[in-house]
Amino acid sequence: MLLLYSGSIPLLRRQYIVLVPSELYAGVPEKACVILNHLNETMTLNMTLEYGTQKRNLLTDVVTQRNSFYCSPFILPLSFALVTVEVKGPTQHFIKRKPMTITQAENIVFVQTDKPIYKPGQTVRFRIVSVDVNFHPVNETVSLITNPKKNRIFQWESLKLQGGLTQLSFPLSVEPILGHYKIIVTPQSGKRIEHSFEVKEYVLPKFEVQVKMPKIIGFLDEEFVVTACGSYTYGKPVPGLVTINICRKYLQYGSMCHNKYPQSICEEFSQQVYNKGCFTKVVKTKIFQLRQNRYDMNIQVEAKVREEGTGLELTGYGSSEITNNLSKLKFTKVKSHYRHGIPFLGQVLLVDEKEKPIPNKTVFVSVDAHAHQLSFTTNERGLADISIDTTSFTTSTISVTVTYKWNSYCFDSWWLEELHTPAQHVAAPVFSPSNSYVQLDLVGTVACGQTQEIRAHYILNGQILKDEKELTFYYLIKARGVISKSGIHVLSITQGNMTGVFSFSFRVEPDIAPTAHLVVYAVLPDGEIVADTEKLEIEDCFANKVHLSFLSAQSLPASDAHLKVTASPLSLCALRAVDQSVLLMKPETELSPRSVSFAFNSGLTRGSLKTTLEAASSTCKRRVRLVLYALTSCIFFSQSVGLSIFTNSKIHKPKFCSMPQPFPGIPGAYSAGKNVVYCRRKVMPCWVDLGRVHSSLFPFPSLSGGSELAVKVPDTITEWKANALCLSGSTGLGLSPIVSLNVFQPFFLELTLPYSVVRGEAFTLKATVFNYLSYCIRVKVHLGVSSAFLAVPTEKNEESHCVCGNKQKTLSWAVTPKSLGKVNFTATAEALHPQELCDNEVAEVPALGQKDTVVKTLIVEVCRYSESQDAGVTEKVSLKVPSNVVEGSARATCSVLGDILGSAMQNLENLLQIPYGCGEQNMVLFVPNIYVLNYLNETRQLTEKIKSKAISHLISGYQRQLNYKHSDGSYSTFGDQNGRSQGNTWLTAFVLKSFAQAQSHIFVEKLHIMNALAWLSRKQKENGCFQRSGSLLNNAIKGGVDDEVTLSAYITIALLEIPLPVTHTIVRNALFCLEMAWGPISEGQGNPVYTKALLAYAFALAGNQALRSELLRSLDRVAVKDEDSIHWQRPEIQLQEDKMLYYQPRAPSAEVEMTSYVLLAYLTVQPTPSSKDLSVASRIVKWIIKQQNPHGGFSSTQDTVVALQALSKYGAVTFTKNEKAAAVTIKSSKTFSEKFQVHDANRLLLQEVVLPEIPGNYSTTVSGAGCVYLQGNYYDLDYTSLRYNILPKKEGNVPFTLHVATVPKNCDGADAHRTFQIHVNISYTGKRPTSNMVIVDVKMVSGFIPVKTSVKKVSPESLQILTNKTLSFSFLVEQDIQIENLKPATVKAYDYYETDEFTIEEYSAPCSAGKV
């Protein structure tokens, strides 16, 4: 505020005042308010801005009226500037200049996630909302990343918001790092903004157990009520047994005499509940000794609900605090300062120990330790308005204490004493030289859209006013950093009437929500300003009125529903809907107007006094009264509201003569003197979780402001919570209230059966009908007949069954599976028109949902101890099975593909039928997707479906691989294990090149690539070779050669495939190492075939054709050549052909890998491979694809990755489009015949048919043009796959010693039949000193499942490498479903890389005797 006076005309007659905010912001409309009083000539007012060499006029007015008051807008640029105010007339001229800093206004940015907690594998959906301080949308550009444990897993750069918001998503991997993740947003302001969500393993409860009890129990209470309820997520009660356990724990140990210790006090109650699902108990407090001091001051309650029919038991908890504080007083409204002569106002609330208001009670007010005593009475809401006469106050600050009852302060270590908490407040005075003041009444929460009346008390000095007949009071409302409203009130003045109350009013609009500051002030004739300010809390409201509703509040699962949305025309709206069971986990994260207001308020910065107060006069003033730490009215409201004062008059804090300070350091302000004032619009980045985001973001272009949406209701019985957020360019942000959609069906059917059984076992299939209506229904339950199983009802088979309101009925069948594989069970429950009464009630038929059908799948295994074998056969074939085949296990298929990578593309997530769980195994889920995408891009076959699938795998694999990253940038098989393991040189090189190649398809943080490269460079020796670091889990994966050259060749290949140029220092030195190593190898010192294969490919990548050719010639001399195929194998490995086998076993992993490297060497030549190279390559490809498994992978990780890379390169080199189709016909010697067509449009399609005759003779015929691919061989025709199970051989030497035991041995007690421990002892007894990585595959006995917590205790790294030393581990399993004729299960230990090395042992449930 600028207060300006003329110099030549008496001060009393000239008043020039300009008010501007003390903090100015660029690009936002500001306002300057002008007061010009007692003019006797025309004056010109100019307000200019000077920055740099530029000058800009902000405000110009010619004033002719004697008295005027108005506010004018202006906009500022971003700069440090001088603000100059000039008032000029014919005889008067005044100019005032002041430097001011103008800063950029920052916007409010929200991040919303659809859930606060995610499970592994789920998709995180979120939106970013950006609005200015007026809640209008801002289309700014943000950069966004997500960051778990400082690893970036996803990033969007320069993301432009549209309409003020955008919505994004990204998938979590199935094995993410658990814990808190961050979404980090960097808007244009550069401020870093974070929003957190949690990833953890959780299961949404089928129902929840709620405990209702008082939060507080008074220590004099004689009883309290506890209610325990079981309710499904859709609100219906759970019938069953409710047990409540209530305890008060003892805190201290007492005497140990007689070996007795104090015990906690507990009581237990139980009751069977039905329709209401709740058990309510009135608990007497006498037993819990609430007045004793040595017990915990809480009552703990544990409630268990066991669901009727299923026996499922869930637990809920509750607690009540015991308190001896029986009443509490607190100020709800109070003035921060007092003004001498005007009553000091406040309001207190009196509540009891349960926070309930206490009405009609007397409270006592004392000022400054009983110097003044007053009493007031609380109203029906427990509120008391206090008013204190300040006329006689002589102290610098006042301390106000409000008391209901006085405490005795008698301490007893054994017994609690009654306490009552008073309310206290310290206020400092406001200084006025003339003892003139104005004070606003306290204002509570203000209703939006209403007219608000404000009362103001005043006291004026008649000597200062002299002959004035009236005094003008001005008021301003400052909200969101700007002056939003202004007005005047003219007070008539008569002699002797210098005190009183006046009122004025204004309309409360959304533009001043959620908080505002009201300022009222007047300028006295001598230039003194009297003022007061009051903070207004406006109820939550937005100008954009958004309403969301479902046309029907209830819907059936999987049905169509309609949403109606209304908002301001041309709004952009975003919806979110979430299962209410998710909200049970973190209900405080719900999106609401209050949370938006909190975000706005938490971003406000403190206002500061921009005026440089002029020095006080050297003469001090004697302290008469009310002067210590006092503020003048003008300084007070400028500090409180954020308005500056610039003046040519002597407005300053008075300088007082020195005297002792009774309360040093206490400033005169609100609440213990602290003047904390929020002002301006600079909204710092502030974050509040605003609920869930539905996957829909849609424009709302309707000029009418209304729209309807059709949505598909999920097939789940629950209650959905939905709301909408809308943004409009004209009305800004709007939020709808939360609405519910109850997805409900009158009854539903649930089947209970095991996940899998073994042929010969039997189990009880249960079908339970749940009736969620309030009346009885009669239903008929039908289990579909199938040749795959035999089902016999366990009870008398009735035609229909009564199921009354909120009850259930369970039917059972004894089931014996007859066929193998997946068996479907289909059950139907249908409501019938009643023919008879149900429990003396007339059964009704529901209007909707009269039928419910459920299909569940059971896996029937051949047996727990068989091995599956695949046989690839081609052309004229005779499908035969061995004599030891498991009966009924043989099955054969014929499949046709038109592309060399077709089978791999169909199974990108399932290339290997082995466990995944380490840093190397994960790469087989990651890397093949790169080769598939590159191949399809190069051959122009990439479709959106394949692209989406492959990129999804890349994103997930990238996240998983970061689990194994070390802080130094390296990677190892199981991660750093809290610093216990080293980075692995080989795996780090593998990850480095894979991440670099994936960059063209997904986001990969460059820092990960740079750090890995830097780490590898530190492992490079002076001769250019790389030193080994970390453990290698596969003795054969490097061709059986664990030497420096082989490792260096692999790393060099990785660096060249990034690709780094051969001139790069690390690459150049590495190639020098390989060139020096080739000399001894070429001279015949040993026969390292694997090393030669790597060297050939490395020199091919480096463009060294001479060494490439030399190595390929050397490799050709040791190649294994058949009629139409070529491959390579380690010299010590001789594949034995077993004439008794009906199939050709696949080659070991290392043989596939080295052969693939040779293929890559043949194909890597500039400009293109020669016809001779392609001829050799074709023969290599024929051998490689014979080794493929039915899913398109190979034996293990590295052979699959390298082989698919080589095949994709070969496919791209040889790819041609065919104008004509190829026809493949397969016939049996009997009646079976099937024909396939393969052409360019379906060359990626897997076509498959089951062959019905086993054993049987088949023949295939191919006609037309093009290639079709055969698993096991590479022909211009189809492939046939024969699978069967055989009993594994146990004779001969086995590579592992395996012992399996189960506990308990004693079968007494019910728990022994439901749970048992599995103990495994294993050691390596093979030919090598140590094993490769070992997998121990423990099959579950039918009907049992592992206890996750016990499995997690088994250390995965303990099975990395085995020696002849026995390793032991154990875990717990528990019964899930009861099974009859229970069969044994197996534990299989096998080499991860050499899968033909295995050992199998059986175990049985220890307490099973046919029936568990």
UniProtKB/TrEMBL annotation:
Domain (Alpha-2-macroglobulin) ranges: 695-783
Residue stretches making up the Alpha-macroglobulin receptor-binding domain: 1331-1403
UniProt-annotated location(s): Secreted
Key word ATP-binding present: no
Key words of the record: Bait region, Disulfide bond, Glycoprotein, Protease inhibitor, Secreted, Serine protease inhibitor, Signal, Thioester bond
Any single Gene Ontology cellular-component annotation: extracellular space
Residue ranges annotated for the Alpha-2-macroglobulin bait region domain, each copy included: 438-585
Gene Ontology molecular function: protease binding; serine-type endopeptidase inhibitor activity
Alphabetized Gene3D superfamilies for the sequence: 1.50.10.20, 2.20.130.20, 2.60.120.1540, 2.60.40.1930, 2.60.40.1940, Alpha-macroglobulin, receptor-binding domain, Immunoglobulins
Superkingdom as given in the UniProt entry: Eukaryota
Similarity comment: Belongs to the protease inhibitor I39 (alpha-2-macroglobulin) family.
Protein name per its UniProtKB record: Pregnancy zone protein
